[in-house]
Amino acid sequence: MADFHQNGNIATMHNLRSANTEALTRELSTFATSRRISLILPSLYSELEGEALPRILDELSDVPYLHRIIIGLDRANEEQFRKARQFFSRLPQNHVVIWNDSPRMLEIQDRLRELNLGPAEPGKGKNVWTCLGYLLACQDSSVVAIHDCDILTYHKDMLARLVYPVTNPTFPYQMAKGFYPRTDGQKLNGRVSRLLVSPLLIALKRVIGDRDYIDYLRSFRYPLSGEFAMRVSTLADLRIPADWGLEVGVLSEAWRNLAPKSVCQVEIADTYDHKHQPLSEEDANAGLSRMSVDICKSIFRKLATDGTVFSEEVFRSLKATYYRSALDLLECYYNDAKMNGLSIDRHAEEAAIELFARNVVVAGQIFLENPAEPPSIPTWNRVHAADAELLPDMLKAVEKDAEDFD
Fold first, then answer.
1. How far apart are CA 104 and CA 109, in angstroms?
2. What pLDDT, in 10s, does the model give residues 347-381?
3. What is the pLDDT of residues 296-322, one digit of tens each?
4. What Gene3D superfamilies does this protein map onto (predicted)?
5. Are 274 and 152 in contact (CB under 8 A)?
6. For residue 395, what are the contacts with CB-CB under 8 A and spacing of at least 6?
7. Quick check: helix, strand or coil at residue 360?
8. What does the pLDDT average to over 171-190?
9. CA-to-CA distance for 323 and 275, rounded, in angstroms?
């Protein structure tokens, strides 16, 4: 059974096992008559060939309260887009596959670049941002949920628990962040959250002092989870990173735009496993190495916008403090895993900590050398102000792609 601890910063919705999700589903179906719920699935074409996504579709097919499912499809050619449309056709809900690499969608991207408003690079953040724009253009949903397409342990209960806090009209929450233990039953996973984010936040507090933002991030049990739900009314002013800083970036936007009482985290699963990224020690532009740099940059930028002054000396101190904090936490994680019959490769974990320590400084150097680098994709409000026809044209482009490649 989960604990019932509340830290006072944000509300935590635990799974205390006193109610099943059948009751939640019935309530959500009632709420959805006046608060339509949509789901965004950012997907690579390669994920259609994996073992996770077919199971996810099986589970989603039994969800009665979803108004629309939006699939953002990346890295697909024309033939693969056709196959993707067929693959997702078994969903009984209203759904659409956005072919992000279609000629029409590339024209939309060209218009954004001409306005200097387009995402700087492809990736999950760009995919999610595009899907959010499409949803805003539809103008018919009140709640949106987002989750990944590589969840091996997916169950429809996860979605019900994720959307319930922001859908229930008697609750004040405008954003809900999912959390869970990262384990496959054999190993303790979640290296970046355990070995980078948690000790980095501890080190930041020691080096730069108390910051409400740091306490806020530390309140989340799993800040890097890819599962969150939001009220659609918050989306138009949402700035999100295009890179691996997406999850931290969304939490930062909630910190900037919403009152703390409007944000909660919700326990959505007892176990959770998905595709694991390689550490990528030899390639700084891939795997967990790239991810760690992007996450650090996202946190540094947010602290800078709140008035924190960084320097080379600060980042050197931060690296040393982070390294010690990470090793201390590793001891805790190792003992926790051992008590629960799970394994941890201490050598591999320490190697990850050494890589992350180097990347703390790398991210700091990038920040210092280019502090004016745009930290996030512009908001859809700004895009609409610059080109009021772009979102309607995106709707038409997606519709025409569906017609032409049916």
1. 9
2. 999 999 999 999 999 999 999 998 766 668 999 99
3. 999 999 999 889 999 999 999 999 999
4. Spore Coat Polysaccharide Biosynthesis Protein SpsA, Chain A
5. yes
6. 134, 137, 138
7. helix
8. 94
9. 26
Please give the Cα distance from 1 to 188 (Å, whole number): 18
What's the predicted TM-score (pTM) here?
A: 0.95
Q: What is the pLDDT of residue 31?
A: 98
For residues 384 and 364, the answer to whether their CB atoms sit within 8 Å is no
Structure tokens at 176: 């809900």
Q: Tell me what pLDDT residue 20 has.
A: 74
Is the pLDDT confidence value at 18 over 70?
no
Q: Which regions of 242-293 does DSSP assign to beta strands (E)?
A: 263-267
Residue 167 structure tokens = 């859908």
Residue type, 325: S
pLDDT at 280: 73
d(CA 346, CA 339): 15
Percent pLDDT > 90 in the chain is 84
Which residue, among 6, 44, 40, has the nearest Cα to 163 in the 3D structure? Answer: 40
Instruction: Find tokens 């969800």 and name the residue.
Output: 63
CA angle 289, 293, 294 (to 5 degrees): 115
Residues 94, 67: Cα–Cα separation, whole Å: 7
Element (H, E) at 144: strand 143-146
37-44 and 11-13 beta bridge pairing = unpaired
Q: Which residues have CB under 8 Å from 193's CB, separation 6+?
A: 182, 222, 223, 224
User: 75: which 2 tokens?
Assistant: 């890295």
**Rg (alpha carbons) of the chain, rounded to whole number:** 21
Structure tokens at 400: 């025409």
DSSP secondary structure, 69-109, as one string: EEEEEES--HHHHHHHHHHHTT--S-EEEEETTSHHHHHHH
Whole-number pLDDT of residue 13? 96
